[in-house]
Specification:
The chain has about 270 residues and is mainly alpha-helical. It folds into three domains: about 90 residues, protein kinase ck2 holoenzyme, chain C, domain 1 (Orthogonal Bundle); about 70 residues, Single Sheet (N-terminal domain of TfIIb), CATH 2.20.25; about 80 residues, no CATH class. The protein is built from ten helices and seven strands. The strands form three sheets. It has a three-stranded antiparallel sheet with strand order 1-2-3, with no helix packed on it. α4 crosses α5 and α9 crosses α10. It comes from Neoarthrinium moseri.
Length: about 270
């Protein structure tokens, strides 16, 4: 294998450690970082305080590691190298060269496809919910529905989101605006035996919560509401149960189906 690498030209040369890292299962989201970028210390500013055994880890990534150490030490340095590569990766993929490499992977749908039916398998982009390492795992962003999803594979779900950052997916579409897809106007319409389900139940639920809220306010003001229950007695409310309902629906607008109208407090279908 090393002979194969040795036969490559300098421009096509691929580092052994980086090639192993990129080809490892679970690391498909990563692209290869150029040698020139890794050896420019300006690009690595501040990372020495975030990575244990920083210099050894960098030497391992750049294939100049020659420390004679035991297996435990080697494993610790290897872990640090993977972490360091991820942190550098977050910086590299927002460069011109890094964006171009991630664009190739995006076009091939290496990051997966949107699970939403009406997005028609639109390719996804990896993103982080924070730029701080060891906080949240990587998520996948769909530019068509503008929503975020969990990776299907548990291997990918374990990747740190900081290795991609919170800005990469947005910068991608700023640099390549032609990639930005049109937003889908398709929405699922609930139907029963072919007939659209109207919003009568949702309206009744919304009215019930508002009525309960009014009863609570009138009771606090010691004003009789005049509402009677089925037995003709003054209507009582259960504060604990209705608090849960109010938390669920407070401020939620009633989205009536367009073929349903309200007349005189009743819900009637529109002819």
């Amino acid at each position: 294998m090393m002979d194969e690498f040795g036969s490559e030209s300098d421009s096509d040369y691929t580092s052994y450690w980086r090639d192993w890292f990129i080809s490892s299962r679970g690391n498909e989201y990563f692209c290869e970082i150029d040698e020139d970028y890794l050896t420019d210390r300006f690009n690595l500013t501040g990372l020495n305080t975030e990575v244990q055994y920083y210099q050894y880890a960098l030497d391992l990534i750049t294939d100049v590691f020659d420390l004679d150490c035991d297996d435990d030490m080697r494993e610790t340095i290897e872990k640090s190298a993977r972490h360091l590569y991820g942190l550098i990766h977050a910086r590299y993929i927002v460069t011109t060269r890094g964006l171009a490499k991630m664009l190739d992977k995006y076009k091939k749908a290496d990051f997966g496809k949107c699970p939403r039916v009406f997005c028609h398998s639109h390719p996804l982009l990896p993103m982080g919910q924070t730029d701080v390492a060891n906080q949240k795992p990587v998520k996948l962003y769909c530019a068509r529905c503008e929503d975020v999803y969990n990776p299907k594979s548990s291997r990918h779900a374990a990747i740190d989101g900081a290795y991609f950052g919170t800005s990469f997916h947005n910068i991608m579409f700023q640099v390549y605006p032609a990639l930005l897809p049109p937003k889908t106007a398709e929405r699922y319409v609930p139907r029963v035996y072919g007939f659209r389900v109207h919003a009568a139940a949702a309206l009744v639920r919304w009215q019930s919560v508002r009525r309960t809220d009014m009863l609570r306010r009138l009771r606090k003001m010691e004003v009789e509401s005049g509402f009677k229950n089925e037995n003709g007695e003054d209507e009582e409310i259960d504060d604990e149960e209705d608090d849960d309902d109010e938390d669920l629906l407070e401020g939620e607008p009633v989205d009536l189906d367009h073929d349903v109208a309200i007349e005189g407090g009743n819900v009637n279908p529109v002819a």
